[in-house]
Amino acid sequence: MDKITRIIAYAKTKLQEDLTGHGFDHAQRVATLAHQIAKKEKAQVDEITLLASAYLHDTIDDKVVPDVAEALAQLQMFLAEIEISAKQQAEIIFIITHMSFSKELEEKVTLSTAGKIVQDADRLEALGAMGILRTAYFGGSHQHPLYDPAIKPVVFTDKTEYRKGSTVINHFYEKLFLLPKKMNTKTAYEEALRRQKFMETFLTEFYQEWEPEKANFF
């Protein structure tokens, strides 16, 4: 069994029961998007580092695992077991521990080319039709209100406050619509704008359906 196959199997084991929108299907799409972005950008990146970071990025995420330190230790042992080089291990771990939106609220770092591409791929997954569904899925799993006109979107500068969340719809403004400008590559930026446009159309419809008495549907 080659290294990528074993990495995929590890990710599936760790993420297949996730019910927050960060499951193995998400990891698969991030890996596919990362591969497509790298190809379109003609980026010179190590394939194992790129795909491992994509598949494994949520296996140590505090939204998914109860003990981040333990999950990270397990991952490091696994990477050593399948003979991922020390250099590759260091880059993979750095990428997946620094690529998230919430991490940027604490510390802004410069990622490697592979890291920037995986970050873009992960952020594209937060946009478009998939982004809408994953946002609703995550919000429901954490008992966030769907929408409350009295609760206004805020600008988060602290990870702890960000993690508390507000409403599902507010999340569009508090994070998702901020992502296009944060894309590292032209390829991801253009796709992010396309997906954002779809989300804006969705919100127009949502607000109309939220107050049907004002929309005058019939």
Automatic annotation (TrEMBL):
InterPro entries named in the record: HD/PDEase_dom, HD_domain
Signal peptide residues on this chain, from the entry's feature table: none
Domain HD/PDEase: 19-136
Source domain of life: Bacteria
Gene Ontology molecular function terms on file: hydrolase activity
Keyword Hydrolase set for record: yes
Hydrolase found in the keyword field: yes
Keywords of the record: Hydrolase
PANTHER family found in the cross-reference section: HD_PDEASE DOMAIN-CONTAINING PROTEIN (PTHR33594:SF1), SUPERFAMILY HYDROLASE, PUTATIVE (AFU_ORTHOLOGUE AFUA_1G03035)-RELATED (PTHR33594)
Protein name, as recorded: Metal-dependent phosphohydrolase
